[in-house]
Amino acid sequence: MVSSDQRRRQLAREKYLRQQQRRVEARHKARRNTVIASALAVVLAAGGAVWASVALSGDDSPASDSAAAGASATPDPQKSESAEPKQPEPAMSIDKKATYAMALKTSAGDITVTMDAAKAPHTVNSFKYLADKKYFDGTKCHRLTTSGIYVLQCGDPKGDGTGGPGYAIPDENLTGLGKAKEDGTVTFPKGTVAMANAGPGTGGSQFFLVYKDTRLPPNYTPFGTFDAAGVKAVEAVAKAGVQGGAQDGAPQTAVTVEKATVSKK
After folding, report:
1. pTM as predicted
2. What's the CATH class of domain 56-264?
3. Domain residues of the chain, as ranges?
4. Which segments show compositional bias classed as Basic and acidic residues (predicted)?
């Protein structure tokens, strides 16, 4: 029989563990959502133009030792899982020479993404794997930016910018948009789809849809483009703005990915 004193000590230990867990989660969330330069003005030497940029973060922790070593076990993504990668990325199962289409049925309209496996095989393979597992179904596009950079960010199962599949994929195709200018940026053209991250090699499931030409450092894997109908749908979401009248945050018009499928073209 457990005495009242023992019970009190047990409850105290449990409370301490919960507090420690909350502190760890708070540190992780703060790191993911750190604003690199929410109002950073960069003056171009040539033209004197300025631009503002914010971090496109998500799925941030470095890959586990097993992932770095190229382990081939098949991961099992869970929507409630911590964003800390604990598993290797999915085994390669796509045709690296093929083009794939990702069909996103969203509450804002249908969006079709064309993905080039030759340029971003790990990224395309991961999206095919996750979509086949219905990982994206029912998830929210949690972030909209309307100043400096113009993107709608999706792919987080938690809907708050902290979620991921439990593994990390390498950066790819970082020179695909050309050589960086003097200010260290390249143009992500309207209609580009790229991976969000929080540093090199930290991509997971979060991605962003560029609805207006945007200049960013070439640190985000551009892995596809989305169709004109999709651009129009995202532009309508952007026109409605961000909640609370902000320039970066949850979109005023909530966007849910109702279903995502990936198929070979």
Report:
1. 0.74
2. mainly beta
3. 56-264
4. 1-17, 78-87
